[in-house]
Amino acid sequence: MKRKTLIIICTAVAAVIAAAGLSRYLTYKKPNTVGEGVILIYRNASYSAVMDSLKSSGTVKNIKSFERAARKRDLASHFEPGRYVIEPGMSNQYIIRMIANGWQTPAKVTLRGYTKTIGRLAAVLGRSFEADSSAFDAALRDTAMISSLGFTPEAFIGMFIPNTYEFYWTSSPESVIKRFKKEYEAFWSGERDRLAKEIGMDRNEVMTLASIVIGETNNAGEMPRIAGVYINRLHRGMRLQACPTVIYAHLETEPGIRRLLHRHLQIDSPYNTYKIKGLPPGPIAIPTVTAIDAVLHYEKSDYLYFCAKPEFDGTHNFARTYSQHMANSRAYNKAFREREASRKASNAA
């Protein structure tokens, strides 16, 4: 009888333990996610905001199960701001630990060339971090920080090298900027610094000329030749007469200029290379890596001029003499007038 009672007790205990284990598994360790989603937890966010973000992600299969697990683990008392990626197969326990311990998933931030202004750069960065564009704009215009990093305000935009980077979403604007400084140093140190010295230019001069080159063409094959034309003009003491710099000089007052007129060339600006000699004080856009390397490996020639081809294929005719250049220019202008007349006629029809 005693043996039978003992068996019953042991069976009951085993059942309780099994039930507890099953309950623990279902509450904490059973996979409870479908698909992939991202939740963002802002600094000073309330616990209800955290739960709302989790619900709106649509990745948690049984939200009541998660809420029960979160209560038992007291998630409401401690969670970290951040960007968290919820993946298929994650359990309630893992999600809770991830949020409580700040196990953020880095976000990929892609910086492309052609960005022309600090304001535009701030807008690009503000889309990828907790800090908004206004916070980045303020940091990017902080002259004390700019100076501490070894730049002038005019040259500063050239510190940002186009590439894809990984950052934590909660990174402050100041830490992001300092990271770009490290990437800039890594980009230049070694071979590119050697090449810049070899062609007699410093980093800012290379970046500035590269920004002009991308203003002239999207054709990577032509970039070294165009860079070579400008370097030939610099060596001869000629004005660059680069149209993209004049367009940049009018950026605030007359954005979106399609065709330069004589009046545009009269502006008094350190960026008007029809008036000043040499390079402007800094880049007129963030240059692409292709353009930077095109300057460092510029094509050696005796060309001094270039003009867009009348075929409008994005390439240029190059000339050694001014008379050759004027002939190319007349051909282009004639084709341009004919195309504009045809466009207007089509619009009027």
Average pLDDT for all residues: 91
Structural class: mainly alpha
Taking Cα atoms only, what radius of gyration do you get, to the nearest Å?
Answer: 31 Å
> What kind of sheet is the major sheet?
2 strands, antiparallel
Number of helices: 14
In quaternary terms, these chains amount to single chain
The 3D shape can be described as elongated
Proportion of residues in helical segments: 40-55%
Q: Could you name the ranges where pLDDT drops below 50 across 5 or more consecutive residues?
A: 13-20
Any chance you could write out the topology, listing elements then pairs?
Blueprint: H1 2-29, E1 37-41, H2 47-57, H3 63-72, E2 82-86, H4 92-101, E3 107-111, H5 118-126, H6 133-140, H7 143-148, E4 163-167, H8 173-188, H9 191-198, H10 203-216, H11 223-235, H12 243-249, H13 289-296, E5 305-308, E6 316-319, H14 322-348
Antiparallel strand pairs: 1-2, 3-4, 5-6
What does this protein structure show overall?
It is a single chain. This protein has about 350 residues and is mostly helical. About 50% of the residues lie in helices and about 10% in strands. It is built from 14 helices and six strands. The strands form three sheets. Strands 1-2 form a two-stranded antiparallel ribbon. A hairpin with a 7-residue loop joins strand 5 and strand 6 (about 315-320). Helix 10 (about 205-215) crosses helix 11, helix 10 (about 205-215) packs across helix 13 (about 290-295) and helix 11 crosses helix 13. The longest helix is centred in the N-terminal third of the chain and has 28 residues, at about 1-30. The radius of gyration is 31 Å and the shape is elongated. The model is unreliable at about 15-20 (pLDDT under 50).
